[in-house]
């Protein structure tokens, strides 16, 4: 799978200040943004799983399905 460009990650528009950066700097920024989003997704998934500990065991499957875990 091809990595998304910084413009793709930001919705197709690069602010003027970012547009002025060198290509390698924009790539570093794109990599940092992608990594941050991956860490955020992982943390959210872990928090969701942790929250399920408070749901009765018989309901966990239905709750997982309902919230998309």
UniProtKB/TrEMBL annotation:
This is Uncharacterized protein.
């Amino acid at each position: 799978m091809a990595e998304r460009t910084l413009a793709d990650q930001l919705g197709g528009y690069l602010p003027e200040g970012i547009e002025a950066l060198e290509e390698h700097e924009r790539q570093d920024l794109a990599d940092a943004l992608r990594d941050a989003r991956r860490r955020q997704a992982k943390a959210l998934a872990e928090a969701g799983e942790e929250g399920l500990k408070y749901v009765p065991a018989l309901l966990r499957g239905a709750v997982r399905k309902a919230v998309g875990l």
